[in-house]
């Protein structure tokens, strides 16, 4: 039976490479992106494009209804946050309440909306939920030069995934957190992500964040 993966924010080059890698391995791919982005996967019959803006509950719900007409189940969700933090000024002096709320809506609540909307389609599948994230949300690293709003929204998202892991693992769900390389060969990083997302782990009871080299990054 063909397995199905749903990948959000597929308009980004790294996510596009991941979509193509899954399709190359005969997965059916639901590639999601905001309405303003043209997702083009010409010549790739395994990939279906769907409009989805995680910042909007209505958009997420409409996308879920659309996906139900494409496939009866989802094996794997790969979520990515809306904001990458690029162009944001680091430091507490530059943080605004409006910017913080915008980052929280897109980066924390948006991903939760996606999982909530598509979870009913996962009961019969692999039951795996993955997140493309960033060490800038790590409480253990405290990386310099990071935007306050972006890092705080990422930290909140990591906590949300930890809580989902505690809740849903009892129903057989497994989780993957992955920090893709920001530079270098995107195809190699996508290959590493594919292996991590699709293979079993011996310590599924732990919530861990791995980078493209397979090294664990503090949450």
UniProtKB/TrEMBL annotation:
Secretion signal, residue range per the UniProt entry: none
Record keyword Oxidoreductase present: yes
Keyword Oxidoreductase recorded: yes
Pfam families the record matches: adh_short (PF00106)
UniProt keyword list: Oxidoreductase
Transmembrane segments: none
Membership in a protein family: Belongs to the short-chain dehydrogenases/reductases (SDR) family.
Protein name: SDR family NAD(P)-dependent oxidoreductase
Source species: Paenibacillus dokdonensis
């Amino acid at each position: 039976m063909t397995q199905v993966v749903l990948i959000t924010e597929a308009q980004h080059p790294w996510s596009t490479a991941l979509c193509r890698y899954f399709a190359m391995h005969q997965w059916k791919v639901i590639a999601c992106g905001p309405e303003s982005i043209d997702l083009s996967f010409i010549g790739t019959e395994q990939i279906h494009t769907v409009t989805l803006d995680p910042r909007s509950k209505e958009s997420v719900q409409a996308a879920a209804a659309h996906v139900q007409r494409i496939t009866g189940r989802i094996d794997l969700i790969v979520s990515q946050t809306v904001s990458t933090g690029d162009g944001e000024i680091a430091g507490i002096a530059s943080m605004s309440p409006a910017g913080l709320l915008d980052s929280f809506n897109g980066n924390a609540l948006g991903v939760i909306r996606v999982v909530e909307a598509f979870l009913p389609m996962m009961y019969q599948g692999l039951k795996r939920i993955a997140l493309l994230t960033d060490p800038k949300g790590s409480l253990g690293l405290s990386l310099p030069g990071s935007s306050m709003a972006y890092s705080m929204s990422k930290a909140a998202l990591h906590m949300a995934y930890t809580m989902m892991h505690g809740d849903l693992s009892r129903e057989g769900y497994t989780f993957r957190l992955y920090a893709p390389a920001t530079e270098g060969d995107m195809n190699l990083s996508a290959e590493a992500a594919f292996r991590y997302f699709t293979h079993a782990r011996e310590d599924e009871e732990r919530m861990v964040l791995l980078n493209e080299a397979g090294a664990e990054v503090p949450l």
